[in-house]
Amino acid sequence: MALTGFAEDVIFKAQAPSQVVVGRPFQLTYTVNQRSRDLRAPEFTDFDVLAGPYTSTSSSMSLVNGRRTSTYEQTYTYTLMAQRAGTFTIGPATVRVDGANVQSNGVRIAVLPEDEQPAQQQNASGSQNTQSSQSARSNQGSQGSQGSVNADNLFVRTIVTKTRVHEQEALLLTYKLYFANVDVAQLTNNTKLPEFTGFLKQELEQGEVQTELEHYNGRNYQTAVLYRTVLYPQHSGDIQIDPARFEVVIRVQTQQQVRSIFDNFFATYTNVTRMLTAPGVTIHAAALPKGKPAGFSGGVGKFSLTPSISQTEVQTNDAVTIRLDITGAGNMKLLKTPSIDWPEGFEPYDPKVTNNFSTSTAGMSGTKSIEYLAIPRNAGEYTIPPVTFSYFDIEDKQYHTLRTPEYTIRVKRGAGESSVSAGSTANGGAVYYAPKEDIKQLGSDIRYIDTKPLKKNTERKVQHTDLIWLFYVVPLVLAILILIVLRKQIKENADAARVRYKRANKVAQKRLKAAAAALQANDKDRFYEEIERAAWTYLSDRLSIPTAELNKDNIAALLAQKGVSETLINEVKNVLSTAEFARYAPTTDHAMDDLYRATTQLINNLEDQRI
Amino acid sequence: MKNRVNRAPWAKKRLIGILCTLYIATFSLCAQTTFDEANAAYAEGRYAEAATLYQSLLDEQPNAQLYYNLGNAEYKQGELAQAILAYERALRLKPNYKEAKYNLAFAQSRITDNVREQDFFLSSWARAVRNSLSEWTWTVGSIALFSLALIALLLFLLGREIWLRKTAFHVAWIALLFSIVSGANAFSLHQRDTLRNEAIITQGIVNAKSSPDRSGTDLFTVHEGTKVTIRETIGEWANIRVGNNEGWIRLQNLERI
User: Which of A99, A446, A608, B156 has the fewest C-beta atoms under 10 angstroms from its C-beta?
Assistant: First the structure.
């Protein structure tokens, strides 16, 4: 209980049980550590004063290491009885200590209603059977005198603050021992808790087991909290919590045949262990609504974000620290650490996370501090994009996104560094090279939109596709018309030349035959004329050049072009000049014979060459 | 009208705006204004708005540039299929649109299906050649080459000089060959654009059936953004081909390019 007092050394306090039952006497005590008088108690409006105040004093003195300490205590005791159920406050009392008024604290008392069972039995007094009278007796008897121990007066309840929660929303689960008229000596270690599969479990510190009175199901029980834990459902759906088992040791009075006046006084007790089962419970966890923000941290609860940056103007190689303090209540343990997108040129280190959480019956709360450290390696002005932290708010059932401001960090070149790492021969001849870096591909994206002035669609469409064939047919017809008109020339160009080419040998052979006849007839003029014409027309036909345009020089050139050998060309020249000269010069039969043979040989040779 | 505009330059923009709402006759002027507006919306990240504006311009007249920008706006909204569709349409209008090609390849790299064309490499190469020029270019080219071939033929037949005739002969047959190839390409493109038998899957995931009804066996799955060839349609069903797979899907799940 809290304490109040004027002087530092005067302690005056009021004490009373926090829960009482209607119709049961209880004691209210006022304690002062100084001599006092004139206690003025407040008015006990809702309580009957059965007795008191009784005053008692006690004092003690002790000598420790030559130091004398004395304690003195004066106690005023009232015996009160509550008139009706409810919660009442008894105001402060005053007392005089050394002529000054000292005020005590007030006391809050929860008054529980009476057990219903005895009342029912009193009403139904006509139909009493042995069993009910026995239990009635045991109820009315004081603690320690035992009746039967059953599920009505000794059990463990599973209490959850809520059975319908959101995924990741905290709920408190309590195993509470209820007992009435049973003497519970202790809780053994033989406790079997469920696995709590599907939950994140955060146990609450369990102090010394304290019993409290509680009115439950129309009956007053002594209660003791056996185990408390905060649970966070890890997935949506119905999650089953299995029953838990607790073992308690109760003291049972042994039944003795011998009844004496000392029966109660010397009653013998035996310890009996009892296994109690706390029922299982099903938690309905609703999934988080759709539309999670991109950087959802997994946080469910209520959070706030306090960002800070160590400095925005640094030198290269000096660390920059960004600190995020996420404060709030919720599933703090499961929060993902948001990441900072450090620009290129910063060397980031793993963030340092400091958790300062405390768990209460309402869940986990506290602060998660994240320190991001990065070292700028290149001078320049850099922008650190905002860090976002989103969570689901249990109260308004919505996602919230917190973001840090965008930091601009100006990095100056540190002393002793230069952008141009020139070779330094002074420094032991060592030469430093600037580290070369390839252009790094940081990411890829589509190319930007085309913002050139909008041009009209210049792409021409093919119109009248069914008439396209005209574009082919018309030139074709034109070409055919031209050919018809000029077919004579074609004949001259193509047919005549070709025919003459093909007939060249025949014509030449004819002329040679005629020359042979002339030789036989000894007709010198005719012979030379035939020989000459045979050679000239043959060459003319074969080279597709009119005879008029031929002379010895261009014949040699054309033949050379066609790949005719030098000796053959010389022979051609020889034959032509011999025929030319012999015609106008006196010759012998022998020479004519030779020329005939040479010409025949030459034409045959040229024929073989396929000029 | 022109005088008024000149006298009050500050009111120019406003005047154009009013004109735009009143007359469609001033198309090019209006279009540029709307286009600038859409570009500004895109630059500020209001992609949905930009896409609507581009689309409204496209409804009036198709344009490669607009399709390209629409594709970008759709891509930025995560509408992969619509983006691919817009890029494909941009390339239909302007086969050598470098940015559109790049972004199309980029968008295609992000779709789920990895359709490997099992074609012989020559046929895919031939298709690339075909798609590199427009139908109009191919047609005009084919006609021009045909005419050239005829002229060369005439020269060959009528020429007197050997070298002229020889050259003309070679030019003639080469020109005729290329004319035929160009004509074939033009025809192929014409077929593609009139039949419109290429389509993009717009539904996130579609099961292709063995027959054009709901009870058909599921044959394979195609995802959003995949390009398919429509072979035939029956009612609301289309027989499609993807790679070497063939099956029936509903027409509402795809959009023709």
Answer: A99
| Residue type (1 letter), B254 | L
What pTM, to 2 d.p., does this model score?
0.42
Residues belonging to chain A with any Cβ–Cβ distance to chain B shorter than 8 Å: 444-457, 459-462, 465, 468, 471-472, 475-476, 478-479, 482-483, 486, 489-490, 493-494, 544
Q: What is the pLDDT of residues A26-46, one digit of tens each?
A: 888 888 887 777 778 787 777
Q: Is residue A182 within 8 Å of A221, Cβ to Cβ? A: no
| Phi and psi at residue B108, to the nearest 5° | -65, -30
Query: Which of A462, A492, A493, A544 is the mutation pick for testing B, counting most B CBs within 10 A?
Result: A462
pLDDT per position as a tens digit, A41-81? 787 777 888 877 788 888 888 887 777 777 888 888 888 88
Q: Which of A446, A447, A468 sits opposite B139 (nearest CB)?
A: A468
A471 occurs within a structural domain: no
Burial degree of B35 (CB within 10 A; 0-12, 13-18, 19+): buried
Is the bond leading into A53 cis (omega within 30 degrees of zero)?
A: yes
Taking an 8 Å cut-off on Cβ atoms, the answer to whether A455 and B134 are in contact is no
Given the DSSP bridges, would you call strands A107-112 and A86-90 parallel, antiparallel or unpaired? antiparallel
Q: Which residue has the higher pLDDT, A76 or A265?
A: A76
Superfamily of domain B2-108 in the CATH hierarchy: Tetratricopeptide repeat domain (1.25.40.10)
| Chain A environment of B94 (Cβ under 8 Å) | 459
Q: Given A449, A453, A475, which is nearest B150 (Cβ)? A: A475
Within-domain flag for A443: no
Q: How many CA atoms lie within 13 A of A312 on its CB side?
A: 11
Judged by a CB distance cut-off of 8 A, whether residue B28 touches chain A is yes
CATH number of the B198-256 domain: 2.30.30.40
Domain count, chain A: 4
Domain closes at, from A412, A445, A473: A412
CB atoms A447 and B102 under 8 Å: yes
User: Which of A449, A469, A498, A562 is the best mutation test for B, with the most CBs of B within 10 A?
Assistant: A449
Nearest CA-CA partner of A20 in A97, A111, A88, A81? A111
d(CA B45, CA B39): 10
| Alpha carbon separation from B60 to A456, B22, B25, B63, B84 (Å, rounded) | 11, 15, 12, 10, 21
Are A516 and A594 in a shared domain? yes
For B191-246, give the secondary structure using H, E and C: HHHHHCCEEEECCCEEEEECCCCCCCCEEEEEECCCEEEEEEEECCEEEEEECCEE
Structural domain boundaries enclosing A236: 144-285
**Are A446 and B73 inside 8 Å of each other by CB?**
no
Q: Which of B68, B139, B157 sits opposite A462 (nearest CB)?
A: B139
The answer to whether the CB atoms of B65 and A454 lie below 8 A apart is yes
Contact B72 A456 (CB under 8 A): no
